[in-house]
Amino acid sequence: MPLAALASVTALGAMSIGVAAGAGSPAMTSMPSFRSVDVTSAVASAMVGAVSAASDGAVPAATESLVPPSVPAVAPAAIACPSPPPEPLIHTQPSVPASLHRSVAATRPVAAFLGDSYTTGYNGAGVGRSGWPAIVAAALGLRPTVRAVAGTGFVNPGWTGQPIRSRLPSVISADPRVVFLVGGHNDRRFATARSTKAAGAVLDRLHRALPDATLVVIGPIWADGNTPRSLRLLRDHLRRKATAIGAIFIDPLRDGWFAGKAHRFIGPDGIHPTDAGHRHIASLVMRALRADLRLVTTPVGAFPSPSACAP
Predict the structure, then answer these.
(1) Do the strands 178-182 and 214-218 form a parallel or antiparallel pair, or are they unpaired?
(2) What domains appear along the chain, each with residue ranges and CATH number?
(3) What is the rounded distance in angstroms from the CA atom of residue 306 to the CA atom of residue 283?
(4) Element containing residue 297 per DSSP (H, E)
(5) What is the pLDDT of residues 132-161, one digit of tens each?
(6) Structure confidence at residue 110 (pLDDT)
(7) Which of 126, 230, 269, 281 could form a disulfide with 121, with the two C-beta atoms 3.0–4.6 Å apart?
(8) Are 301 and 288 in contact (CB under 8 A)?
(9) DSSP character at residue 88
């Protein structure tokens, strides 16, 4: 073999060994591997970037939309009623650990939900991904943190001794981008002066502790059109307070969420929404957010009307 050809073959073999050593071959640990380390770091960075892009459905603040990225912004009639989204399908290389996907998803900004059984779900209905918090958070591209406890209120400690104020520390520590405060139904038997004072204190604390978060205050929810006067007075106070601190206010009583024909979304107990009722709530909440425009930029008509969600 000519001397030049032999030199070429020798050089090529040395390069192959160097790459193998950089890949972690125990037989070549004494060889320099700085070039292989650089390549490995670049590949790892690219893999993490790809996983982040596939896993994180959060919409940038400047273009945040209530319509999930997979749903085109077309006429309302062409869009299906909102439903709990499936688990995201993430196509990865076998060498990327599943724990990496979980850690990337965990960095998604938080939407916190404070409330009672209308928010946490009850008796198997509206629980977990079937609940309106999960549906709304998915539409916003946020990760839901539900701090709702059945039977509680601004004053009412419920069966577990956890009025809404007792859950504020865990909500504040989550550093949410959006906070949904929904309460008052279970305070109907307390003096209005007491319930309004307690509600005001909760709003003040959230406003001070989370100045950069968007606060959405949803008034008391009632299962039909016969709302007690005490809840109407509490609702009025919540609206005034929300306006004073720059929060978004949504009024289920004025809008008749479960009045008239909409009472069909209430379950057999006559109080709590069914799964369809939670989809109904989600649609109403998102329609109200679109009308306010502080959280979204997509046109209001791009999301279906609540009537489209009838079972």
Answers:
(1) parallel
(2) 3-55 (no CATH), 66-309 (3.40.50.1110)
(3) 5
(4) none
(5) 999 999 999 999 999 999 999 999 999 999
(6) 95
(7) 126
(8) no
(9) P
